[in-house]
Amino acid sequence: FITIALWNAASNHLQRAARGGSEKVLWGQLGRVLAVASGILALGSFANLSGLTTLIFGKPLFIGISGG
User: In Å, how far are 9, 11, 24, 25, 64 from 51, measured between CA atoms?
Assistant: First the structure.
């Protein structure tokens, strides 16, 4: 839900910038990039938890920050 909310907020920001508002386009684009990255991490986590990566690659993938 947070990823979708971030995408929607970035889209609204870009729409306001396109209408001539004081918003900067850079922040809207950055928001979209972060939303896509968040979605990729969420899908990777789901694949690890479901055992899909173990089935395909023979071992779980380590996505994100690990403790060691």
Answer: 33, 34, 42, 40, 17
In the numeric block, the tokens 């968040």 are attached to 38
- The series of mean pLDDT values per 10 residues for the chain, 68 residues long, is 93 93 90 93 79 76 56
Global confidence as pTM: 0.70
Q: Which two tokens stand for residue 59?
A: 């071992």
Q: Determine the Cα–Cα distance for residues 14 and 55; give it in Å rounded to an integer.
A: 41
Do 1 and 29 form a contact (C-beta atoms < 8 A)?
Answer: no
Whole-angstrom distance, CA of residue 6 vs CA of residue 55: 32
